[in-house]
Amino acid sequence: GAVVSQHPSWVICKSGTSVKIECRSLDFQATTMFWYRQFPKQSLMLMATSNEGSKATYEQGVEKDKFLINHASLTLSTLTVTSAHPEDSSFYICSARPQGPYNEQFFGPGTRLTVL
Amino acid sequence: QQQVKQSPQSLIVQKGGISIINCAYENTAFDYFPWYQQFPGKGPALLIAIRPDVSEKKEGRFTISFNKSAKQFSLHIMDSQPGDSATYFCAASMIWAGGTSYGKLTFGQGTILTVHP
User: Fold this and answer.
1) Contacts with B104 (C-beta within 8 Å, 6 or more apart), sequence order
2) How far apart are the first and last CA of chain A?
3) Is the CB of residue A31 less than 8 Å from the CB of residue A51?
4) Residue A110 in contact with partner chain B when CB distance is under 8 A
5) What is the distance in angstroms between the CA of the first residue and the CA of the last residue of chain B?
6) Which of A11, A101, B89, B90 has an alpha carbon 20 to 30 Å from A37's alpha carbon atom?
């Protein structure tokens, strides 16, 4: 149980285009989902916290107009990188926290974004 | 105060040996301490986690030791195997953070573990 999927697993796009990444909890409902960014050989950096039915909470320094997050249901959150540039190339990972008194977060497999 | 400091950055052990990774935190409000294992190109996977009301938790070959007074916790991997070679991250969060925090995880810097056959 506690499986989180991401789609796509990798994407290559041209500079200036927008890319949408989906995060789904497959066998549980997630009130809260989190979006992280990870550069090679570095730790995970939290970008934003996404709660179903409400606006995402962004970490300091993360541009909310550039990284649009939507959490439309208890099993789906999306991250859209708008007007992507080469510096946005990174590994994007989501995690989901099940409903209830739990603090475990289950991570997706990640999405490798390369902006040319 | 939100930082979690992890050491060492890299660790090499022989097959069958014990791998030990340490983490230290400052924020005494943290009350949930998980360890994650990450293979290259994959998302992190939850290995084991502990709450501060216990000093040790063991699951198979993995043990967390927790020292509340020192604000430190460590991961011990017994009988290390080549398949354990991965990056390990410690993390910490507040379970009932309230507001908009909802249990955000603060990650350590990561330890690259290499187990030689």
Assistant:
1) A34, A46, A49, B93, B94, B97
2) 37
3) yes
4) yes
5) 40
6) A101
Q: Note the pLDDT tens digit of each residue in B16-51.
A: 999 999 999 999 888 899 999 999 999 999 999 999
Quick one: pLDDT band at residue B102, thresholds 50, 70, 90? low
Q: Distance from CA of residue A32 to its chain's centroid?
A: 12
Check B105 against A105: CB less than 8 A apart.
Answer: yes
Contact B102 A112 (CB under 8 A): no
Query: CA-CA distance, A112 to B106, in Å (whole number)?
Result: 22
Tens-place pLDDT, residues A29-58: 988 899 999 999 899 999 999 888 888 999
Q: How far is CA B53 from the centre of its chain?
A: 17
Q: Flag if B109 and A104 touch (Cβ within 8 Å).
A: no
**What are the backbone dihedrals phi and psi of residue B82, each rounded to the nearest 5 degrees, phi first?**
-55, -30
Q: Which of A57, A107, A109 sits opposite B100 (nearest CB)?
A: A57
Give me the residue from A4, A103, A112 closest to B93, CB to CB: A103
